[in-house]
Design brief:
0% helix; four-stranded antiparallel sheet; mainly beta; 264 residues
């Protein structure tokens, strides 16, 4: 199996992976294969994970940090055609993009991109026009992760501070702060919504995984297993409630797998 020569920072079931060697690799995983079929050099060194969105069965869009410290480029794969480069105005002073999330508002519409920045802002970008639609400064520290519920048109972000922020996307394309939740300890490396949009999980620098009810951001549980910072958390995409699992990866070199709140 080909192995990236540096730390892998992102992997998706759509057969793409991102490493700290500045490469995004496309993998052939069909019928038990595990071959790298193509790669893309990003020309950016940072901690921002890419975001992808499927266009058709054989085409997708990939948003990735780009050459400039504050730039994001959107490419079409597998052709590697540049769709747009998103660059804030000079006086915006957003800093580096820290996390990205692409989504489609409606069938047949143009894709939008949510980006969390170093200054604590969430920005909504229109990819067809390559321009900023809305900016919400909801954190005082860099945003480490965000996720978005397209059905309820609301999202959540976590940062290096002691706060989760829930915000909404209005019909006027504005981002509006809805709710905040104060945490016990600072530092959220990742926020992830379960596919059924009932559970929110956070990966904490304090070694803990926290679970919330997504509807009202109600605290449900604190999972205390890891002995070092938890870097990532992800849910399986199985449709059967009995098969829904959650996995978390930590600096302690362990991956924990959990079965939680699977009743419908």
């Amino acid at each position: 199996m080909p192995i990236l020569p540096d730390l892998m920072g992102w992997i998706e079931t759509t057969e793409e992976s991102q490493g700290r060697d500045q490469n995004v690799c496309l993998w052939d995983l069909a019928e038990g294969r595990n071959m790298v079929t193509d790669s893309l050099f990003m020309e950016n060194v940072g901690f921002c994970k890419c975001s992808h969105s499927e266009v058709t069965e054989k085409r997708c869009l990939l948003a990735t940090p780009w050459k400039g410290l504050d730039e994001v480029q959107v490419l079409e794969l597998p052709s590697k055609t540049s769709i747009c480069i998103l660059k804030p105005e000079t006086d915006a002073k957003l800093g580096m993009p820290m996390c990205l999330r692409m989504w489609w508002p409606n069938v047949g519409s143009h894709p939008l991109l949510l980006a969390g920045y170093e200054d604590g802002s969430v920005v909504l970008w229109n990819l067809s026009m390559g321009r900023m639609l809305s900016r919400l400064t909801c954190h005082q520290e860099p945003i480490m992760s965000l996720d978005f519920d397209s059905e309820k048109t609301k999202g959540v972000s976590g940062s290096s501070e002691k706060m989760l922020c829930v915000w909404s996307h209005s019909e006027l394309q504005d981002l509006e702060l809805q709710q905040t939740y104060q945490l016990t300890n600072p530092g959220i490396a990742e926020v992830t919504l379960r596919q059924d949009k009932k559970i929110l999980a956070t990966a904490g620098w304090d070694h803990r995984i926290r679970l919330f009810g997504w509807k009202k951001l109600k605290p449900l549980a604190v999972l205390d297993y890891h002995t070092s910072a938890v870097h990532c958390v992800a849910f399986s995409d199985h449709n059967q409630p009995s098969e829904r699992l959650m996995a978390a990866g930590s600096k302690d070199h362990r991956i924990s797998v959990w079965s939680i709140y699977n009743q419908t």
